[in-house]
3-oxoacyl-[acyl-carrier protein] reductase
Amino acid sequence: MKRFEGRVAFITGASKGIGKAIAEKFAIEGAKLCIIDVDEQVLSKTFSEFKDKGFDVFHQVADVSKREQVEAFVDSAVKEFGKIDILVNNAGVIRDNLLFKMEDSDWDMVMNVHLKGSFNCARAVQRYMVDNKYGRIINLSSTSALGNRGQANYSTAKAGLQGFTKTLAIELGKFGITANAVAPGFIETDMTRATAKRIGISFEELVKHSVSQIPVGRSGKPEDIANAVLFFAMEESSFVNGQVLYVAGGPKA
Ligand code: NAP
């Protein structure tokens, strides 16, 4: 018996990077997947890849910051698979800049995707989870929640997600639903590639610099985060609630 046989996992921003790795691990462990992303081309490519691997996948282009799109997707996913057991709020963007150069649009975009998006998705799934008396909600925070130069918007959103996680844990615990957060450190994805580009260095240089500050002496891979997410999502983790797990190759917080 696979660990997530019979479970349905909804992962946002799952076409690439950390979200894709999370989706893939759930599917390998037997879960059915519901995935959304904003970029149609990349999402279709990932969907085809997953189908070729024999995964059971329901997908749609949807923007987490848009309540109607999220609710329509969740309702269709429940029609398709009968329920949603696991929600992973992974979709994310960065709009980095020093405070004095940060535009309103940079601030709003980051708040909308991370905070409003996670709120929209959690609110949409909770009624199905409450009915089933079972659920696992995992939010993607970040070590940036502890503060990071050039990320006033992103670190605020990622710290906000920790408060959101703890509140969901308190409100939903009695319905068999847990909420936890994974806070990654430096992970090699398009997001960190974009950071290298913005600061004008090669990705290899950025990786080398980051690794020099990571106690385990290597950078993180999307699978490292997926492993932590799966731990929180396990049925046996029912007494682990409202926690933030830093997955950064060394101590944080
Ligand atoms: P990524 O490679 O950029 O993937 C994020 C995915 O989310 C992309 O496919 C993106 O689409 C999608 N997305 C963006 N806005 C969306 C929206 N409104 N609705 C639905 N999907 C949307 O990033 P990642 O590195 O895998 O990051 C995944 C999560 O981990 C994020 O929450 C991020 O903040 C967090 N995290 C990452 C790191 C790291 O070092 N990589 C560290 C700490 C935390 P587009 O590409 O079209 O925008």
In short: Residues 104-132 form the longest helix (29 residues). The mean pLDDT is 98. The CA atoms of residues 87 and 137 lie 5 Å apart. Strands lie at 8-12, 32-37, 57-61, 86-89, 135-140, 177-184, 244-247.
